[in-house]
Amino acid sequence: MTDHLQSPVALHRIEFSGTETDAERLARMRRALREAEKSAVLVLAGSFDGDVMEVEVIGELTGLLLEAPLPVFALPSGFIGPRGLPILLAADRAMIGSDTSTAGNWRNSPALTVLLHHRLGPLLARAILFSPESDLLAVLTECGFAIRSSDPAADAREVANGLAENGIGRRFKRSLKASTELPLKEALAFDVWSSRKAQGGAP
Amino acid sequence: MSASGNASVRAERANAVLLLTIDRPAARNALNPAILERLAEELTAADQDSAIRAIVITGGERNFSAGADIDALAGHSPASYMASPTRRAFESIASTEKPIVAGVAGFCLGGGCEVALACDLIVAGDNAVFGQPEINLGIIPGAGGTQLWRPRTGSGPQIGAALLGNFVDVWTARRIGLADEVVPAECIVEASIAKAQDIAAKAPLASRTAKAALRSAGMMDLQAALAHEVSLMAGLLGTEDAKEGTAAFLEKRPPQYRGR
Fold first, then answer.
1. Using alpha carbons only, how large is chain A's radius of gyration in Å?
2. Which of B58, B100, B114, B142 is least surrounded by CB atoms within 10 angstroms?
3. Which residues cross the membrane (chain B) (predicted)?
């Protein structure tokens, strides 16, 4: 279900079903990214449970999310399995309800190693990967990637409203992308151009 | 900024910089013979105009150019292509003596990519995509697309572009040296002009001579290119600009170059 009509304009939300195939999920994600052209935040909610059916499709889906031009929030409900974990880690932020926990052999998730390394850094990635008893969601929460919330949807809406102002969320996202891809000084120059344009200044 | 132009290429002046904008948005700035000839004419005229010290070629913030107009390409026979205005126009662009900055956003494919690669510096918007998809049409790039990647990127990306028609996103383009700077796409025109103005602030004869020396790398062997560089340098030493540059340095003031 895509419920952007019920959501505030700032927020475009798609709800994952536990029964859809990975290919269907990928197609919905592509559509959602097109439809979210005017939104400040894309929210991925619903089922993150289950095993991976098509590894290549999950890889494609993860790549698509990493290229998303707007902030992406993951709001998983219930269990997070090997199928949902790459999506969660490819998001910019996770908002987790009190009922949410990992399930199944989540260590078998495709893209897990790479995403943990890029999102959390080499030390935390190793701490998670090489400690069989590690509580993944506790680490994600402790390091600031995820927050525990009694009402994740309300929190997402509140943050999205703030990010809608002057398109600042999208600007953050582009500068984050530049920071990932460019050397520090080139990324700084990119951000200066972006800030200058946002302020309506002349070059 | 003063402007002139027809429907497909706009020519404007920003002080000593000539800004040429490919303006055919309905066709994603596909290059037809009229556009290429107009670009070639403007560049030839710019070489003769001492008030112009650097040039920008851009397609604006949406697309640089999605490639050559397929209709125009399909109309050629082997003989007519060799003698076509299109081919001559590409040669003319590549032989321009003044420094050119390409301001690339969005699609920069096929002939569009070859135009960008004929420029001296490439400033790219964060939505830019480079590629030579000609192989997918049963042809090959015919205006430099099998040669001009290599000096910037080395062999691998050149082969990937020519044999596989691989597209290269802007971040990869920056990493492999295809693009020289990445800016937000909506800033592409300003950033390209700023780069051209940096060039225009240097001594114009020296900029032109440096470009000639740089170009010799692909046209002669190293020893000949080094000898050519020496002769070019010697030629510059007698110019007013060279005297002004050294005098300004010693007197700790900004130089005032006159192109003499």
1. 17
2. B142
3. none
Cα gap B173→B161, rounded to integer Å:
12
**Residue with more model confidence, B68 or A82:** A82
Residue A190: list chain B partners with CB under 8 A.
126, 182-184
At B1 the pLDDT is 58
All CATH 3.90.226.10 domain ranges of chain B, comma separated, are 2-200
Task: Select from B56, B169, B187, B192 the residue whose CB has the most chain A CBs within 10 Å, as the one to mutate to test that interface.
Answer: B187
- pLDDT bracket for residue B97 (50, 70, 90): very high
Per annotation, catalytic residue among B103, B134, B160, B245: B134
Instruction: Give pTM, 2 decimals.
Output: 0.89
Give the right CATH number for B2-200 from 3.90.226.10, 3.30.420.340, 3.20.20.510, 2.10.10.90: 3.90.226.10
Q: B184 vs A203: CB contact, 8 Å cut-off?
A: no
- State residue A2's pLDDT score: 47
Q: What tokens appear for A20 in the block? A: 């859809």
- The predicted model gives B164-193 an average pLDDT of 97
Task: Judge: B187–A178 Cβ closer than 8 Å, yes or no.
Answer: no
Strands B167-169 and B129-131, by their bridges, are: antiparallel
Question: Which of residues 137 through 196 in chain A touch B, CB cutoff 8 A?
Answer: 174, 177-178, 181-182, 186, 189-190, 193-194, 196
Cβ-proximal residues to B201 (8 Å cutoff; 6+ apart), any chain: none
Query: What's the sign of the alpha-carbon dihedral A191, A193, A197, A199?
Result: positive
Q: Which residue stretches of chain A have pLDDT < 70?
A: 1-9, 201-203
Judge: B187–A181 Cβ closer than 8 Å, yes or no.
no
pLDDT at B69 over 70: yes
CA–CA dist B39, B46 (Å, integer):
10
Check: CB of residue B102 under 8 Å from CB of residue B57.
Answer: yes
ipTM: 0.87
Q: B204-250 maps to which CATH number? A: 1.10.12
Q: Are B193 and A203 within 8 A, CB to CB? A: yes
Segment A65-124, tens digit of pLDDT:
999 999 999 999 999 999 999 999 999 999 999 889 998 888 889 999 999 999 999 999
Query: Would an 8 Å CB–CB cutoff place B97 in contact with chain A?
Result: no
Q: What are phi and psi of A132, to 5 degrees?
A: -55, -25
Q: Which chain B residues are closer than 8 Å to A168 by Cβ?
A: none
Which residue from A178, A182, A193 is facing B187, i.e. has the nearest CB? A193
Is residue B68 part of the annotated active site? The answer reads yes
Domain A11-162 has CATH 3.40.1350.10: no
